[in-house]
Request: fold
Amino acid sequence: MSEAKNFPEDVNFTVLPFPHDVVQNHPEKVAEILSRESAMRQPIVVTDRFDDFLEIDSRVSHLAMGNLESPFTPSELAAMTSERAFRLMVEGFESSDFKNELQKQHVPIVTGIPSVQGHHFGFIDLDSRAAIVAATLTALGANAEKIRIKIFGEVPGVFSADPRIVSDVRMYARMSFAEALELSTLDGPRAFSSGGLMGVDQRGVQIQVRSIHDFDNKGTRVLERLDGDTQGVRFISGRRHQFLFTVGCGRMAHSSGIASLVLNACAELDVSVNATAGVGSTFVFSIDQDHPRRDELESRLEQIGDVAVQQNLALICSIGTGMKQKNGLASRLTGILAGAGVNIEEITTSADRIVAFFVQDDQYEDAINVLHREMIEREEVGR
Reply:
């Protein structure tokens, strides 16, 4: 059985997520990419419509992801983690005709949205489905180091900030999965989704973000680890239009239960939390201001404790790797914002990759620009 699952050591795979609009607008470029990749690797396309490729390449074959019908109860599905759901989707695709199609010298065109008993668990974006394909290849015995997910789009790579806000952005040749995961939930050009990143992180599969207009530009590679010279703040991003909840509960001053109660309420109402802060008997978190269940969530929170709300806020994030090694970083960031006249409403940090602030919505672009200028542009000049 194990022998049948092994691929030859010299087989390289490229998983190519192609949105419908990219195929429609650039069919010649897509055809050229398939030709180039076929000369070096086994390409596998993940897309929305199989018909888009019938006139591009005559060697295509169709495979569809679908709903995995497993005997889970509603409570088991509600408690299922995204990681567990991802593994189930991989197992479902592994049991399809996927490997047989690879052995027919065709270019498999994978369509469909995977699910477990109708639940997608966030794996809707094309790069999420590409991650399922890549993970299935490893499950079938392919060498993860010989698998690439290449995302071709209108931009040449991943920038240090939104180029629509900051004029002097940097494009990085390399970034970590941790950095990419933080950026995937924030505003600005999004090259990947959190589901796609989670699926291949720590599996040895690399992701490349490249321009469909410039094949010579290798773009940005997303790697599991970076060298030490990449430590520090490398990205400035954020998320506008935030609604900030502060939940206080005196009876839990010596218990961690308040965070659990709040986050469970958010999960039950399918409300995504963008950032958290707070200590002791107070828990602070933000959601998108236009979320349709915002009022319902507020009512649930009032059953937990005293609730205060702030609206028209923006989340500003300084993102990098090895940031806990940078003494006084949070103090420097707050000083930069204060010097630019940007008022900080709340601050939240993670151990090693992000320092984030809440500011007024109308100061969002000012905060992005000043932090990028001081933490990235001037740092680059000094190196």
